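Posting here for the record, re: fe (ii) ion.
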Amino acid sequence: MSLMAFDHAVIRVQDLDAARRWYCDWLGLIELAQDGDIVYLGCGGDEHFDLGLRAGSVGLDHMAFAVAGVPELEELHRQYSERGIACTAIERAPEPGIAAAFRLTVPTGQIFEVMARDGRTSYPHTTKWNPAAAHAPLDINHITFLADDVELPTRFYCEQLGFAFSDLLLPPDADNPWLFSFIRVGENHHDIAIVKGSVGNKLHHVAFLVNGVSEVVRFADRLGRFGWRIEAGVGRHGPGGNSFLYVRDPSGNRIEITADVARLPNRFESPRIWRGELSAVFNVWTEAPPPASFGDGT
Ligand SMILES: [Fe+2]
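Prediction output follows.
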C-alpha cells in the first residue's frame, strides 16, 4: 500500500484575479472550477486540477499525493495512524474530482494530503491545452521546500510515509548538516526536494513539467515577451539532470518550468551522494551559484 504520485498543490496568492490571469494567460493553465476563495487550475491534458490558488497571503496551503483508490486510502490511513502519525479523519469529496482524502502535518509544518481521485488516472493530451496559450505545461512535477534542517523531514518522509530516497547533496565538510535532499514516491526523480535555508521552513517552488528543454526556452521567451523577468535559468541541474527556469508569480511564489527529469525505477537503491556547495550542482553548464534571491521562500 503506497503513495502513487504527486497530485496537486494549493498555494496562497495575494490577489486571486491577478494570479488567475498570470497562471492561465501566461503559463497556459486552464481554469476548471472555483469553490469559494479557491480557483482550481489544470494543465489541460485532462479534467484534473494540478494547482489551486487560494486567496490571501502567500506560500503553500497544502500539497497532495495520490493513492490508487479509496480502499488504499483507508489502508494507508490505518497504517499511518498505527505509527502514531496524527491524521485527520477521511473526508469524502473534499475538492473537485477527489473521492476522499485525509491530511497530516509534516515536521516542517506543511499540510500533507493523501487522496484518491474519483475517476481514472490520466495522461496529458496536448490537443486539450489552453487554446489561447502558445503552449502549456504537461503536468505538475514536484514541490521544493526550504528547511532549517534537511535531514529531519527527509527521514520522516522516507521512514514514516514511504518515500524512496533519490539524491543527497552533502557539504564539503562531512560534519556539517545535509544541504539538499531529493525524494520520490514513484519513478519521477523527485516529487519533493528539501534545501537547507536560512529563512525558516517555507515553500521554495512548485515545478511544472514541459516537453523538453526547447520548451523551457520557449517559456523564457514567452515570459520575456510579456515583460516578465525570470529569476534564474535556463540551466540544467546536477541531481535529477533536469533543465530549468525559475520565475516568481505576482504574489512572489516561485514556479519552476522543467524538462528531462530523470526516471528512477529501482526504489530499493540507496541515494546517489553529491558533495560540495549548492553552486556545484545548481547549474552544471556553468557551476555559477543561483542568484541571492534564490534563498527566499514564501
Ligand atoms: Fe525543482
